[in-house]
Amino acid sequence: MGDPSGIGPEVVLKAVAENEVRRVCIPVIIGDAQLLAHTARTLDLQSGYDIIRRDEKLPDDISEPVIFHLDNIEGSIEPGIESAAAGKAGAGYIEAAVELCAAGSIDAIATAPINKRALFLAGYSFPGHTEFLAHLTGAEEYAMAFVAANLRIVLLSTHVPLAEAIRMVERDRIVKTINLAHRELQRWGIERPRLAMAALNPHGAEGGLFGVEEASEIVPAIDACRGPEDINVQGPFSADTVFLRASRGEFDAVIACYHDQAMIPVKCL
Questions:
Q1: Model confidence over 7-61: pLDDT tens digits?
Q2: What percent of the chain clears pLDDT 70, i.e. is strictly above it?
Q3: Inter-residue contact 134 to 180 (CB < 8 Å)
Q4: Is 208 helix (H, G, I), strand (E, B) or coil?
């Protein structure tokens, strides 16, 4: 359900009511039944779903949407106000979702928005879902990735200051991310993924005129992946063209150097 003081409850109720969603899955709303009912009344949305409490087993034969009710909101929640209570509740929904997924009770997780500051106020240090999910699942290799239409993007770094993101453009991190993207795209059914590495600097640094990271870090990483690993990766390509090329089918995925470099083309699409 996401942060209970945010837009998550509204978005979830609207999504679950859509026939397009109901045709492809049986939604299990993990959240607070009382808050969802209040949201539905306030905005005149569909509600009235069956409620399953945390101490009950999720039935194997559900055919309609249900609410997996945690009853974990402690204190008052005000819409639009960051609070430790909201952050703790939102984190609890994610933890419960991972538990259900690990137990085989659900097949996949879709997350509504969380608030990073509310999480921090509740005592959680994760900058976003990616790191939180990696922690809960014990994943040592992970990356944030996005799919928009025909464009797939894998991020080298996530929610960090831009100055730190630039420092994180280094050979070993790039090699690990390329290897991860290659392996996971194969699991998606792409036998030999065509990967493109985005440049960090304008025009790919123009031979060192506008930066050194391409020559000192990115190119050596690409060469290392092409060698014994035999990964089909090319670049670095100037970021002002590579995402368009990928969206037109030239590449199966692009490795982006930092958060906003990836998010601008994704959200435009």
A1: 999 999 999 999 999 999 999 999 999 999 999 999 998 888 999 998 888 888 8
A2: 100
A3: no
A4: coil
* Pairwise CA distance, residues 48 & 265, whole Å: 39
Q: How far apart are CA 116 and CA 47, in angstroms?
A: 28
Looking at per-residue pLDDT, the higher value among 229 and 48 belongs to 48
Cα dihedral sign for 119, 125, 127, 132? Answer: negative
Q: What is the pTM of this model?
A: 0.84
3-state secondary structure 90-119: HHHHHHHHHHHHHCCCCCCCCCCCCCHHHH
Residues contacting residue 82 through CB under 8 Å, at least 6 positions apart: 5, 115, 117, 118, 121
Tokens 């998606």 -> residue: 188
CA distances for 206 relative to 199, 200, 211, 238, angstroms: 11, 11, 8, 10
